[in-house]
Design a protein that fits this description.
The complex is a heterodimer. By secondary structure, chain A is an all-alpha fold. Chain A contains four helices and no strands. Chain A has a single domain, classed as Orthogonal Bundle (Non-ribosomal Peptide Synthetase Peptidyl Carrier Protein, Chain A), CATH 1.10.1200.10. In chain A, helix 1 runs antiparallel to helix 3. The radius of gyration of chain A is 11 Å and the shape is globular. By secondary structure, chain B is mostly helical. Chain B folds into three domains: 138 residues, no CATH class; 77 residues; 124 residues, no CATH class. Helices cover 72% and strands 0% of the residues of chain B. The radius of gyration of chain B is 22 Å and the shape is globular. The two termini of chain B are 30 Å apart. Classes of the chains: A mainly alpha, B mainly alpha. The interface between A and B is medium-sized, with 13 and 20 residues. Chain B: Keywords: Acyltransferase, Cell membrane, Membrane, Transferase, Transmembrane, Transmembrane helix. Chain B: One of its GO terms (molecular function) is acyltransferase activity.
Chain lengths: 78, 385
C-alpha cells in the first residue's frame, strides 16, 4: 500500500465512511464527516499508524479540509 | 474612552486612518504609520483613568517576559511541567482580576480587554510548545499583536501566525481597495446593528417592558427573546466595527458571527456564535483535553471523553465571562445541552429516527433558537435578580 492509500484508509476509518477514498477533493468538514472530536482521533491515528506527529494547533480546518489536502500536508511533515 | 462607543471616537479614528487609506491605495507599506495610529488610539482609550493603564503595562511586560523566556527555553528543552507552569503564570493576572472583587479589595489587576488579551498571549505559549513557533519573536511583533487596538476591548481573538501573515503582507493597490471597501461596509453595517437595531430593541422595547408585558410570565418571556436579539445586534455590531477597522489597517481579523439564529443544533450554534472565542476553546481546551485522554489512554469510553471535554470547555467559558452566578449557570446550561445533544446524535446515528428534509431542518432551527434564547436569558442575569 502506498502512502496515499494508507492515509485514505486512516481517514475512512475515522470518518466511518469510505466516500473519502473515492472523492479526494471532498471537504470533510462541510460534509459533516469530521467534527473536532473525530479530528483528534484522526491525529492520534496518524501518530499511531503512520508515525507522523501532527500538533493540534497545526491542524487548520482551512488547509486540512480534503483527503488530498491532508495527504499533501502529511507529506510535508513526514 | 471606550472604543466604538461614541461618534467622536469614529470621527477621530476616521481622521487618523485617512493616511493609512491613502498609503494603502498607493500600494505602500502600512505598518509604520499604523504603529503611530495604534499608539494614539491606545492613549485615547486608556487615558480616561478607569481603564487600568498601569495594569495593562505590567500585564504586557509580564507576558513578554513569559513568552520570550519560554521560546528560548523551548528551543533546547521541552518539559511538560515548565509548559503548564508558564501557561498558568500567563493566565494568573486574569484569574486575579476575577477573584480580587470577592476579596473586597481594589481590583488592581483588571484592565479593559484583559480577558481577550490573555487568550492571545497563552495561545503563543501553546503554539510554541507544539513547535509551531520556533524563532524568537521581537518585542514589536508581540506588542503589536497583543495590543492591536481595533480588537483590544472585546475581540475577536486572532491567532498570532495568521495575524503575522497579514501584518507582513504588502497589499497591492487593488487588494487594498477591496479590503478598504469591505472594511467601510462592515463599519456601516455595524452602525445599523449596534446603534440603530440594538439601540432600538433596548430603549424602545426592553426598557418599556414593564408597560408592554401583562404579567410576570409574559414579562420574562418577552425579556428572554428581546434580550437575545439585543445581545446579538449589540455584540455583532461591535464586532463589525472591530473587524472593519482591522481591514482598513490591512489586517483581516477573524469573524465572530455567522448567522447564529439559523443554527440547526447546539453544536452548529457554537460554530456560528462568538466564533473566535468558541474556536479558541475548541482548539486549546477541548481538543487538547481529548488528545491527552486518548494518548495516555486514561479514559477509553468515547462518549465519556467527549462529554467531559464539553463540560470542561463550557464551565471554563462560563467562568471566563465572570465569577457570577449567571455566567456559571450559563456555562453549565450549555455543557448540559451539548452533552445531551451528543447522546442524541450518537443514538440517532444508529437508529436514524430523526427524519431529514427541509421541514425537519426548519423544526431543528426553531428548537435550537428557543434553547439558545433560554441560554441568553440565564446569561442576562435577570432570573437571578
Amino acid at each position: 500500500m502506498d502512502f496515499k492509500e494508507k492515509v485514505l484508509q486512516v481517514i475512512a476509518e475515522v470518518c466511518e465512511d469510505d466516500v473519502v477514498k473515492e472523492e479526494h477533493d471532498l471537504d470533510i468538514f462541510e460534509a459533516g464527516l469530521l467534527d473536532s472530536f473525530a479530528t483528534v482521533e484522526l491525529l492520534v491515528q496518524f501518530e499511531e499508524q503512520l508515525g507522523i506527529n501532527v500538533p493540534i494547533t497545526e491542524f487548520d480546518r482551512d488547509t486540512w479540509n480534503t483527503p488530498n489536502a491532508i495527504t499533501d500536508r502529511l507529506n510535508e511533515l513526514k | 474612552m471606550t472604543p466604538y462607543s461614541s461618534f467622536l471616537f469614529f470621527i477621530i479614528l476616521g481622521i487618523l486612518l485617512l493616511p493609512t487609506m491613502i498609503l494603502g491605495t498607493m500600494g505602500k507599506p502600512l505598518r509604520y504609520y499604523n504603529v503611530f495610529v495604534s499608539i494614539v488610539v491606545l492613549a485615547m482609550i486608556f487615558s480616561g483613568g478607569g481603564e487600568g493603564f498601569y495594569s495593562l503595562v505590567i500585564f504586557t511586560i509580564l507576558q513578554l517576559v513569559l513568552i520570550k523566556g519560554y521560546i528560548s527555553y523551548r528551543q533546547t528543552k521541552n518539559s511538560s511541567l515548565v509548559f503548564y507552569l508558564m501557561s498558568l503564570l500567563s493566565i494568573l493576572p486574569l484569574i486575579l482580576s476575577k477573584i480580587l472583587p470577592f476579596l473586597a479589595v481594589d481590583n488592581w489587576a483588571s484592565f479593559l480587554g484583559i480577558s481577550y488579551l490573555t487568550f492571545r498571549a497563552v495561545q503563543i505559549i501553546i503554539e510554541t510548545r507544539d513547535g509551531l513557533i520556533k524563532q524568537q519573536l521581537s518585542i514589536y511583533q508581540l506588542v503589536n499583536f497583543m495590543l492591536f487596538y481595533p480588537t483590544i476591548s472585546s475581540g475577536p481573538i486572532d491567532r498570532f501566525r495568521r495575524f503575522q501573515k497579514d501584518e507582513e503582507k504588502r497589499w497591492t493597490p487593488d487588494e487594498y481597495k477591496e479590503l478598504l471597501y469591505k472594511g467601510i461596509n462592515k463599519i456601516f453595517l455595524g452602525f445599523l446593528y449596534k446603534f440603530i437595531i440594538g439601540y432600538a430593541i433596548n430603549s424602545y422595547f426592553i426598557m418599556n417592558l414593564d408597560y408592554i408585558a401583562d404579567g410576570r410570565v409574559s414579562y420574562h418571556l418577552l425579556y428572554m427573546y428581546s434580550y437575545s436579539l439585543y445581545l446579538f445586534f449589540d455584540f455583532a455590531g461591535y464586532t463589525l466595527f472591530a473587524v472593519g477597522v482591522s481591514y482598513i489597517m490591512g489586517i483581516r481579523s477573524p469573524e465572530n458571527f455567522n448567522k447564529p439564529f439559523i443554527s440547526r443544533n447546539i453544536k452548529d450554534f457554537w460554530n456560528r456564535w462568538h466564533m473566535s472565542l468558541s474556536f479558541w476553546f475548541r482548539d486549546y481546551v477541548f481538543m487538547r483535553f481529548v488528545f491527552l485522554m486518548k494518548k495516555k489512554k486514561w479514559i477509553q469510553n468515547k462518549m465519556l471523553v467527549s462529554n467531559l471535554g464539553y463540560i470542561l470547555l463550557f464551565l471554563l467559558m462560563g467562568v471566563w465571562h465572570g465569577l457570577a452566578i449567571q455566567y456559571i449557570v450559563y456555562g453549565a446550561y450549555h455543557a448540559l445541552m451539548m452533552t445531551a445533544f451528543n447522546f442524541f446524535e450518537n443514538w440517532n446515528k444508529k437508529h436514524k429516527r430523526w427524519p431529514t428534509g427541509k421541514f425537519m431542518t426548519v423544526v431543528s432551527i426553531v428548537i435550537t433558537f428557543h434553547v439558545v434564547c433560554f441560554g441568553f436569558y440565564l446569561f442576562s442575569g435577570r432570573p437571578f435578580q
